[in-house]
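Now for a concrete sample entry.
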Amino acid sequence: MFSQTRQSYNMLFIGLGRHVSIPLESSLGPKSEIEHQEREKSMGKWQRQWGHATKGLATKEFFPKIKDRLKTKINLKPNFTAVTTAHGKTRSHLHRFRIKESPECPCANGNQTVDRLLYQCNKLNTEREAPIGYISTEDNWPVGKKRVSDQISKTVYQIYKLN
């Protein structure tokens, strides 16, 4: 409960028959500090749960830290979601549900998975050139999925659409 007195604010805590009034001198005072601490505590709990979860392993490879994912601006589209969850139109995934007869990649070098599409399928070499060139200026290819999601999410859409 808040009450305004002249140019300052007071926060009134009511509990177990006691009333405590704490002056909030500015928006950078105790109120925002409490909000910040609660947000940090909540993020820590969420990260621990995410770290111990047995589901979403493909997504964890792209986004190992909740805080980093929330800072990343992503234009969520069905193809991007399909890639980052590994629940999409890959032959390997569709084969699990008997929608495709074979999980084999059209390049004939193994099962068609998200990893194969991002890193290995020779039919997508041309589409991979731009992100490899971009990342190679700062890092060595192949890079981890987190780096891919950070730097080339638009290209992931294009690679996945072509297949």
Q: What stands out?
A: The chain has nine helices and three strands. The first strand starts at residue 2 and ends at 5. The chain has two domains: 2-52, 57-162. Residues 57-162 form one domain.
